[in-house]
Write a structure and sequence with these properties.
heterodimer, A: 273 residues, alpha/beta, Rossmann fold, 7-stranded mixed sheet, 9 helices, B: 618 residues, Pyruvate-ferredoxin Oxidoreductase, domain 3, 4 domains, 8-stranded mixed sheet, globular
Chain lengths: 273, 618
Amino acid sequence: MTGILKPADFKSGIKPIWCPGCGDFGVLSAFTKAMVRLGCRPEEVVVVSGIGCAARFPAYVNAYGLHGLHGRALPTAIGVKLANPQLVVFAAGGDGDMYSIGGNHFIHACRRNADITLLVMDNRIYGMTKGQPSPTTEPDFATHLYPEGTHMQPLNALALALTAGANFVARGFSGDPNGLAEIIVEAVRHPGFSVVEILSPCVTFRPDQREWKHQVQRGALEPAETLAEALARVATAPALSTGIVWKGDRPPYLGPGRQADRSMENLLQSFVA
Amino acid sequence: MTSTQDRKDSVSVAVCGSGGAGVITAGEVLLAAAAHAGWHGLQTRSVGPQIRGGEAVAMVRIASHPVEAHADAFDMILAIDWRNFDRFAAEVTLSPHAVILMDEEAGDLPAVYAGHAGPVLRLPLQEVAKAAKGRANMVATGLIGEMLGMPADSLEHAVRRRFKAKGEAILDSALAALEAGQRLFHERMANHACPLAPPPMGKGERWIISGNQMAGLGALTAGVRFVAAYPITPASDLLEWMTPALAGAGGMLVQAEDELASINMIIGASFAGTPALTATSGPGLALMMEGLGLAVAAEIPVVVIDVQRGGPSTGIPTKSEQTDLNIALCGLHGEAPHLVIAPTSAADCLATTAWAVHLAEKLQSPAIVLSDQKMAQMKAITEPLPLPEWKAARKVQEPCEPNTYARYRLAADGVSPMALPGTPGCMYTADGLEHDERAVPSSRLEDHAAMLEKRARKLADHDYGDFWAEIAGEGEVAVITWGSTAGAVREAARDLGAQGVHFRRLILRLLSPPQPERLATALTGVHTVIVAENSHSGQFLHYLRAHYDIPARLVPLHHAGPRAISAREVREAVLAALMGNGTTAGNGETEGSGGRKAASGPAGAAGTGSSETEVLTR
């Protein structure tokens, strides 16, 4: 593949399993636009995912992909990046994948701050398994498992990301592919671990989310100067606000440094009695 | 002076004391001195549950022949004090004439040794140490060294090596205490000399190694450059050894947030093209099972070293057992062929781990390396080991035209070239979902069948060569074993061989995929097969029965850890089988130190009397 690439060059041609009207189509569109704007080549991009509707993402992108285990996209993506720092590495998945079964990895990926970008397609429901509550489901939302609602506090993942050390924190909306593409471009360009939470409606199990296109407050999250300010914004802004709220200055994690003194000769000498 | 006839070809010594007494250091110095002088030897240790400063016992065996396991009984125990000794008593069986030597202030003799027939001596170890401005552990080292007839220059060399980094004052006081201990021997217990037969190797360069270090070195020489792991006993010292070693080789070790992250990080690193490994123990291996299944399905090479410890659950973290065999072989869901490989000694961890890396990379498969706490944390003297030839050499896809690459092409040998990210034209998504040749997810029966067959074929059809097992000896009785139990089997072969009694030994390195034809060849003409393993339930026995058609009588020889299978147990089982009554060797526990007697008594008969008819008619 040579010459100037178009967004379509980043689509694999495999037909998504997503429902008609699924927000994830918009994310795919935004992603391919971002790839072009970043000037990426398909062979240098790796998208790692776990399990769920959103986690089918890599198969639909013309890039290297690894569709692995439920919840484990982040450590896998970190392994890819540390092994080959030249690659542009994404982890992609849904709210259940990243915040529930993968919640521990989310915390430690923020702390570690490897130079990768996380795309969380948040629809506040488990879609693939047909409508169970997720960590971002509203406490009173009725499902088959919880007809009265879970009465559990929805996770404020952006606040968690900020406190745990993520170096770039933003929220986008699948219904605004151009705006989302801009956020992804900035997320990739910013060094360290970038968290992009994406409001991506599930039209099948959350038909109420069709209204998001009227409710989302684009750009309501603005870059903060300090971490405290960023935290205050994600704590007080309406849940459907989008925008980049934090660009930190932590150096990205590259793994432990090289130590030249441990040559093989020195290693073997250390066994001598 | 003792005559040469009285010199022993193997002496076993235990040194015990509470935290800070330095008994482990005493053991290490004795072992290093033995290595310097040219003896064989090993050291293990047992420690209390305290994180720091708990009681400990160092167990050292020095011999004029290669040793891989402790002898049946100890010839001496030296107690700087007896604090909480009951925790270790079962691990320190004394021979009837063993010397018990204790500090004057050590208190009462433990009940377990009440009625001991041999000498019980009380010496002023602490007082002598004080006078020499040193510590009692080095007084003990000097005393034991002198008792065993170790050359003074080797002891001094070992002390200097151990303390040179601690500053001159500490080194001088250690040397002073060592000399005081040597003098104390001559002043107070010269008639208890227990001299070793002359060192067989002469002076020269020797290594002191642990299995964990050799596994790390094997992985490194084979090309592993990425390790992600979560701390766990008894694998952590492997990780600590590898951290600087990898950094020096341009690789890295990452501490992951848990074992789920460890296995997935190495899957990611290997997908990106870097040979990758993790090390863990039973609880961590259990957490990694789903990841290993992904590595099978997506055909991503990874190596997991499982340093086995007592289980289930948290079990006995600091002590050895061979009981992760079942989970290593069968713990993956679905049908997931993979490699399971076991080193046979601390030294063998070097070559076998390199082999595992080589095979995993070549066959694009996960490999589980089953070592165990015994070989992993044992300190052993060895001649410098040759670095293994096995290297990671993955079949990699060259750049290609877009839409032509099929990652999971049904190659004849099942191994299809792997495109690494960065390679133009070959973009694909590796998948844990069943897929077709182009890596596109598929639930079609034909694709599933083809991929199951591909993944099974690439392992089953590979020629693993002679390294799959160590096969030696002759005769109609065979002992088949794996892992660190091999040490007891080799020693039994040496002991019985010296008496003209021979048996075959098969020590399997390759546990999965099974090699039925090779095993059948190795067992041709054998009427009785003793199956030796350190497991309560006989996991290895069940594995053999499941995968091998063995046309001989199987005699189980197994019991739980932390007590290892001993050479004596193997000798007795072999002799019983040769005499045709080996049906009850399993879980047999004979008291005391009668092993030698039992071994020598029927030897003459065994040479001639192992009539096949007699055995088969039982």
